[in-house]
Amino acid sequence: MALNVLSVASEAVPLVKTGGLADVVGALPAAVAPYGVAMTTLVPGYPSVMAAIGKARTIHRYDNLLGQPARLVAAKLGEHPLIVLDAPNFFARDGGPYAGPDGKDWADNWRRFAALGRAAADLAGGLVKARRFDLVHAHDWQAAMALAYLRFAPVKDSKPVPSVMTIHNMAFQGYFGREVFKELGLPRSAWKFDGVEYHGGVGMLKAGMEAASVITTVSPTYAQEIRDAEFGMGLEGLVVSRGDRVRGIVNGIDPAEWDPANDRHLSANYTSRTLGKRVANKRALEADFGLEPGDGPLFIVVSRLTWQKGMDVLLEVLDHLVGIGGRLALLGSGDAAMESEFRAAATRHPGKIGVRIGYDEALSHRMQGGGDAILVPSRFEPCGLTQLYGLAYGCVPVVARTGGLADTVIDANLAAREAGTATGIQFSGLDYPTLAAAVSRTVALYHQPDQWKAVQRNGMKADFTWKNSGKVYAELYHELTGPR
Ligand code: ADP
Ligand code: GLC
Question: The pTM is what?
Answer without folding.
Answer: 0.97
